[in-house]
Amino acid sequence: MVQVRPLRLRYTPAALAELEQVLAYLSELSPQGAQRVRTRIRAVLELLSDFPRNGARVGQLRRIRATPYPYLIFYEIAGNEIVVVAVRHGARDPSKMPNPS
């Protein structure tokens, strides 16, 4: 049996800033809610490290939703890494999303 190693996770500086902004905004409304969103995003990213092609293709990137929350994670697979390029609320203007299709 071949053992597949999970991919490493890396955020672009812009994606990390977006995630921090989302969590800061949510913390003002509900610290517990912000923690739940953070935990869910982390769980989705852990899943992607084992199953990187779970996200839907959107142009050059892939996108996955942090269900049940409305946040979209845009990422690319680059060698042995998953590179998170954006974390956005799903209700944002689609033309402002990375690689809109």
From TrEMBL:
<dbReference type="InterPro" id="IPR051803">
    <property type="entry name" value="TA_system_RelE-like_toxin"/>
</dbReference>
<keyword id="KW-1277">Toxin-antitoxin system</keyword>
<comment type="similarity">
    <text>Belongs to the RelE toxin family.</text>
</comment>
<dbReference type="Pfam" id="PF05016">
    <property type="entry name" value="ParE_toxin"/>
</dbReference>
<dbReference type="InterPro" id="IPR007712">
    <property type="entry name" value="RelE/ParE_toxin"/>
</dbReference>
<protein>
    <submittedName>
        <fullName>Plasmid stabilization protein ParE</fullName>
    </submittedName>
</protein>
<dbReference type="InterPro" id="IPR035093">
    <property type="entry name" value="RelE/ParE_toxin_dom_sf"/>
</dbReference>
